[in-house]
Amino acid sequence: IHAQVLDWLERYMAIEEIMGVQVEFQMPKIHRKVKTLDEIEQVALDLRMAWKIGLDPIENMVEILEAQGIKVGIIPGADHFDALTLMANDAIPVIVVKDGMPGDRQRLSVAHELGHLILDIVDGLDEEKAAYRFAGAFLAPHPAVLLELGDRRSRLDPYELHVLKHKYGMSMQAWIYRARDLHILSEADATAMYRQFNAKGWKQLEPGDPYPIESTERLERLVIRGLTEEMISEPRAAELLGKPLSEFWKQASKQHDGLPLPIYH
Fold this sequence. Notes:
This protein is mainly alpha-helical.
């Protein structure tokens, strides 16, 4: 996995240097130290405000992070691998997620890794629980959840959860956890809903149409830009893409219903 990450990252940083578009990551100037899980709610809100996201649903997690200088890669992964975070050259944060996972799970994994990067967790607080709490709070901030669900509920309808899943890009089960964390659902009511999901076989495959998978296209856009502006040659473009140009155009054409036209031969 690390070898795949290294190959992708070297190509990514190379085209950024060629095009002169490196985005330097700056740790946001917000209070990041947390002693309890509840304190994470404010950190997530403050980060959204620092990045000028507001409280609206995040349309594209990958683009948001890339704009802040955080590299996001999607690679074929080994079993039991979902995501990882590392620092390149001690300065560039990198989040990598496994290819092929459902879009809502992918976004939660990215947000979870962002939590590891942002939070300054005091010893004694479970880091994984803290990162998952941050993921939910970042994707569906507290005020938005109250607006959507109300202050107190005894249960949530599956259709309601499905609609919210597509609005916020967060799974139906993650919404149940979110409602429990914010005490909108009691522990007993949330447990009853988990059991319902298990009984119906929804734990692994939630009902309804899936949330779309996000893709990382900035590297490809930079390569095509360099090729169009004649800043790189076709062989160099293929090297940076990690595949022959003919294969890239074929895949792009299939994905975008015939576009782009393969003008480079």
